[in-house]
Amino acid sequence: MIIDAHHHLWKADRGDYHWMSPDLPVLARDYLVDDIAPLLRKAGVDRTILVQAAQTEAETDFLLQIAEETDFIAGVTGWLDLSADDFEARFAHYRRHPKFVAIRPMLQDIDDDAWILQPCVVRNLEHVAESGFPFEFLTYPRHLPHVVAVMRRVPALHAVIDHLSKPPIASGVIDPWAAAMAEVAAFPNLYCKLSGMVTEDDHGQWSPARLRPWIAETVRLFGPSRIMFGSDWPVCRLAAEYGEVIHALRCNLETLLEPADMERAFGSNAIEFYRLNLS
What we know:
279 residues, TIM Barrel, four-stranded parallel sheet, 9 helices, Amidohydrolase family protein, Amidohydro-rel, Metallo-dep_Lactonases, Metal_Hydrolase
């Protein structure tokens, strides 16, 4: 079974996508189930994780409604306000939905890089950790010291780094990103998504070979049991189409992993991380 552990769907006129701009016409349009379904069939992808793209509960509700009506969506990573006094009540409310499988704040878009270290946020993350519920870090490399700090405070947090923390692939300079990721990877319950790479390279210049050093370093640091494939579709369309993204990852991992570990990276690690019930 192949699982795409990271893609988005959105309806532009909902109006809460703060990043959406007519300057990016490839993204400033609707992307819904009928748009991605044929791409999944062609690539042989069986299930997906639908990930939030707006900092509102309204979008979380929108995504959960789509998931209810769509068999191939195995789960939704939604947004909840981790700084809210009523977080525990809102968390309990959403956990009743069988396809609500993770929480993601958009740390990359918050002005305060250390926002996640606020006492109220740490307290709520402790509650998430006690519940054994998955959490996602959407970060740039500059946030990684704060990821390390919060993991030291909440070591039981079951979490994943999205998009390799968006390293500067276009620059070709792997340090200091690699050193920061080594600190993150030292936490055994922290995973990493092999996603979002094509858009961190020069959009017209990317190639599977240019991604290889970043993929290889991530595999070395996290090992074959804590990595997972994500397409980051449709954001990836800024640089590449769905089939190109999965091909680029597959042709790199085939030289780095044994066949059994390939199956983990493309499927069973996501099942384990999100604790999916696919029966």
